[in-house]
Specification:
Blueprint: H1 3-11, E1 21-23, E2 31-32, E3 39-48, H2 59-76, E4 80-90, H3 95-111, E5 115-123, E6 127-136, E7 149-154, H4 159-165, H5 173-183, H6 189-195, E8 201-205, H7 209-220, E9 223-227, H8 235-240, H9 243-252, E10 258-264, H10 268-276, E11 282-289, E12 294-297, E13 303-304
Parallel strand pairs: 4-5, 9-12
Antiparallel strand pairs: 1-2, 3-6, 4-6, 7-10, 7-11, 8-10, 9-11, 12-13
Helix pairs in contact: 2-3, 2-6, 4-5
Bound molecules: adenosine-5'-diphosphate and magnesium ion.
């Protein structure tokens, strides 16, 4: 099967058709037509085999995750995702793998009404790069957090990091739930759109809560106080790990793809209501304070010094 047959067979079979796609897969470039007044929001993320996913990932999980991490970025901007481009580097053409991979990708795309409008297919070490385009009326950025804002996070934290700490032969139900959090994170697209009316600043938690909160604090020129006892953790994590281990994972583990945002504290009830409407749990974990102070209190309520504050490529 050559490159063109492969594209036709696996990536043209998508069922999302959108009126705003003037030209999709098949020409030198795609053409989309945003409505006037809409801001175009763009994000790209690359997954490299052996670096961004472990070898127990199925092809469907890799396809799902490649799109999910981009959906999460657009969610954090309060944007509506619409069009995706897929750059795929494959060591070989393996039909069963491609079938599963494209199914994982296209099923998630369909769920969010994202059209695959183009891409690139090359040979080399397995690498998947997805570009996602969307629109928003007013983007939600990392800047804009205000002194006195409450700090919120959706879902639970630490599950993905704990999945990587599991024994390989642990196949119990809780272990399965933690692994699913890692391989199939739920991008908070509807929550991101709902936050528009409330939030001052937002980011998605991809590198770890403290590292990602640090981005909001620097961009907004404020400090924060976080109560470690309030960090939302899952029943699966609590069934398998000690409270201390879970706190470390929740504070510094990556790959959760939850939304971290700040909003006026008095809006807490409305936020809770609105996010319940899109099936998204939300927890208040702290407060924005003046200056550049940052404090995380531990399980005993005493301020602690976390060892590691997020993942960085090329860090020494
Ligand atoms: P060109 O050589 O002009 O860059 P390609 O041969 O790379 O074009 O691609 C042909 C068409 O197929 C283009 O429309 C491109 O966007 C699309 N395409 C290539 N690879 C993929 C892929 N993995 N998924 C979706 N569309 C793809
Ligand atoms: Mg090309």
């Amino acid at each position: 099967m050559d490159e063109f047959a492969l594209i036709d067979r696996y990536f043209r079979r998508q069922t999302v058709t959108r009126e705003d796609v003037a030209l999709g897969i098949g020409d030198d470039a795609a053409i989309v037509v945003p409505r006037s007044g809409e801001q175009l929001v763009a994000a790209v993320d690359t997954l490299v085999a052996g670096r961004h996913f472990p070898d127990w990932f199925s092809a469907a999980e890799i396809g799902y995750r490649a799109l999910a991490v981009n959906l999460s970025d657009l969610a954090a901007m309060g944007a509506e995702p619409r069009w995706a481009l897929l750059a795929l580097t494959l060591p070989e053409v393996a039909a069963a793998w491609l079938d599963d991979f494209s199914t994982g990708f296209l099923d998630l795309a369909r769920k969010h009404r994202v059209a695959l409008i183009g891409g690139d297919t090359t040979q080399g070490p397995l690498t998947i790069s997805v570009t996602l385009l969307g629109v928003c009326e007013r983007a939600l950025t990392r800047a804009g957090a205000m002194v006195g804002d409450a700090i919120f996070v959706t879902g639970t934290l630490g599950d993905a990091a704990l999945a990587l700490a599991l024994d390989a032969d642990d196949d119990g139900e809780s272990a399965g739930r933690l692994r699913a959090h890692f391989s199939r994170p739920e991008p908070r697209v509807a929550a991101g759109l709902a936050l528009h009316d409330f939030a001052h600043a937002a980011i998605d938690v991809s590198d770890g809560l403290l590292g990602d909160l640090g981005h909001i604090l620097r961009a907004s020129k404020v400090g924060a106080r976080i109560d470690g006892r309030c960090l939302p953790t899952s029943a699966a994590a609590r069934a398998l790990f000690t409270p201390e281990r879970i706190l470390t994972a929740a504070a510094t583990g990556g790959d959760d793809y939850e939304l971290l945002f700040t909003a006026p504290a008095q809006l807490e009830a409305s936020i809770r209501d609105r996010l319940a409407g899109c099936d998204c749990p939300v927890t208040r974990i702290g407060t924005i304070v003046a200056g550049d102070a940052f404090e995380l209190s531990g399980l005993d309520g005493v301020p602690m010094q976390p060892a590691r504050t997020g993942f960085r490529h090329f860090a020494t």
